[in-house]
Amino acid sequence: xxxxxxVRIDKKTKERARKAFRASGIGLSSGLRLFLTHIGRTxxxxxxxxxxxxxxxxFMKKLVREADYAxxxxxxxTDVRAMHREILGEK
Length: 91
What we know:
The structure is a single chain. By secondary structure, the protein is mainly α. The protein has two domains: 1-47; 50-91, no CATH class. The chain is 59% helix and 0% strand. It has helices at residues 11-23, 28-42, 57-73, 80-88. The longest helix is centred in the last third of the chain and has 17 residues, at 57-73. It is extended, with a radius of gyration of 18 Å. The chain starts with 10 loop residues before the first helix and ends with a helix.
């Protein structure tokens, strides 16, 4: 049996979340359902709950190191389709 969940949230946050989910190929409702299902199944929030503005300095340093490494040593693709073909093992 399904139930309805109503959430009050500011317009800017809703739009950002909608865009993020859309970039992953899912809608806002499906994204929230996925998020809540994960929490219900594991009993844990899937990611640390901080934003770029309030992230711990140790996390930011690690993020910068990883980005620098990826820029120097990461594989480059001519387009997204080429990257997906490689990930899926297609020619």
